[in-house]
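Lab manual, section 2.4: Encoding a predicted structure.

Procedure: take the sequence of the chain (403 residues), apply the prediction step described in section 2.3, and record the output as structure tokens. A sample record is shown.
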Amino acid sequence: MLTFRLAFRNLFRHKTRLVLNLFLLVGAFSAIVLFKGFKQYVIETMQTSKIETQYGHIDIAKKKFFNNAAVDQVIEKMVDDPKDLIDKLKQLPEVNIASSRLNFYGLVNTEDQSIPARFVGFDPQVEVNMQKHLYFSDGATFQDSKTIVVGAGLAKLLKVKAGNDVTVVSPTLDGGINAMDLHVQGVFNTGFTDIDNTTIFLPLVDAQKILDTDRVDQILIHLKQNEDSAEVIPKIEKLMTNPELEVKPWTDLDLMFLQVQNFYNFQTFVIEFILLALLVLSVSNTTNMTIFERLGEIGTLRALGDYETDIQKLFLIESVFLGILAVVIGIPVAYALAQIISSFNIPLAMPFTSLPIPLKMTPLLGAYIEAAVICFLSIVVASIWPARKGSHVSVVTALRAKI
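Recorded output:
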């Protein structure tokens, strides 16, 4: 008990040094929490947008569709009569909605030009949430058939806006050519350049009329909880009677999302390693100074019968108290900084995005725990060698330091 009391009192002997150490530790603690909070916000924003506008949580399609296999006819990649399977999927308690999608490429014609585009046919009556995640810079969502919404980048190339009419031309599944006049209902942004510069959404019935088919190429499943995917996939596979069909989680279909996630994970590791190294060097330096100034006290304790391990224990306990104090101060400081920075909605341009992302931080319990572990680890590691070195100084040499 006496060792703990001495360690706690020694912590406050040099207030300026204590403040400097706390400034470094709390700064590193806050930096880790803020960066991981921003990373989580970006990942969650991407995940929500990808799930709602492109993939759903789970996708069902033919293996040839997923593998982009070469086929004699496109029809070989398509799903026949998806209604029965969709009705079965809706009976699963984890499933929120199940809906068909039909993707194809064609030409968009205006009076002045013709530009190739990717068309996504979906059921606007079922995928209501999808339309809520399309941020409209002009016009609004679907009201009826024969209307489309155009990505902002593509609309700029076409020089169209809400209220204009365009003609879509595409080959049918049997090799013919079909065309349809469509009304531009709105211009949207998803925030992702690859979608906004190439994509047009239209009602599924219109997409099927253009291709002259009643088939679809995908069935999208939206779950009530994101975490249910692993449990639901085996249940879905039991419902499927067509051996050509395959079930995949959306993360298997989006390479860019996985690349961004891996990049942020590596970036976080590098930042945390740098902070850990800086903290170890800084705390080690101040610990060395403290031990040098207290050599006389170390000699007195050794002369009174304390062992080398007792001296080491004293300095290590001081380091633990310093870590506890840093974490106690760092938690409210990091939280306050996260709330203040998030409240400003600072726009931040990111790679692959067509819109700036607001600088926001999502608080994570894991980030606080990780930051606390890094702070404690750096303090303990930084104190071990100086404490061991100071405790091994001979009693005579240590007592002479007081003269």
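Check your result against the sample. The first helix runs from residue 2 to 11.
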